[in-house]
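Here's what a typical entry looks like (Membrane dipeptidase):
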Amino acid sequence: MNIVDAHCDVLCKMWLNPSLSFENGQSLHTNLEQMRKTGAKLQLFAIYVPESVPDSAKFDCALEMVDIFHEKIVKPYDDVVAVYSKKEAEQLPKGKIGVMLTLEGVDAIGREATRLKTLIRLGVRSVGLTWNYGNATADGILESRGAGLTDFGRSVVDLHNQHRIWTDVSHLSVRAFWDVVEHGRYVLASHSNAKAICTHPRNLDNQQLTSLIEKDALIGVTFVPKFLRNDRNASVSDIIHHIEHICSLGGAENIGLGSDFDGIDQVPRDLTSYSDYPRLIEELHRYYNDDQVKGFLGENLIARIPS
């Protein structure tokens, strides 16, 4: 099976700990050794600038993570290929692992669109406007104000539309979510689950999920235990419950996977790292046919890369 994962935070972990090896770092949920053994096809790497970084240093931090991506993820390994388009993802040679840059929260750009254009030129192909709180573009889901897109936020979504890159609605406030669904041409939820199954605010309700399905957007089911179960005692079977719920809404062809590996402290008890993906695949095969499983594992996402 070819695995495509819509979200991991390896870059942030390696920025915080420069001695970490992408090839075999034992503290990484996602490392190259595991990806090679397990059947990785494409991994999306988020640029997430920690909130503790001063505003004046956030853009430099983002650039440093871009450098880590190219110098420590891509350059040292003959079998790792930077991917910038749907065509490149579809035509990855056998034995090659594609990697793609994303941006989780635009705090690093402040109010400077030129900074975002620079990150796009450096390879970013998906942008989430916020993390959990507010910034110059919109409010995140934990910002009590709950505001939608600002005028600057709308101009940023316009920029994404112009450059044919995704606007990621994971982490957005409810109002901002609906603004992006209305205004964005290329939309995905890289790592969000079903609120009907688990009530965490980061999850999406049925109306939101249905709107993404109607927009033919990708919904990346995530492995974050507190997004899987209200008691956080999560396992692979809980991932199946969220997938089945989205299927029941008509979204079988919209489902992908967005692990959030390396951005979380707690993991499902039987899915503790990338090397455990076969357990999820085995469970998926108990309930779905081969074509559906291939779709969930990656074909649905690749089909929706803007082109």
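Residues 81 and 170 are 26 Å apart (CA to CA).

More examples are in the samples folder.
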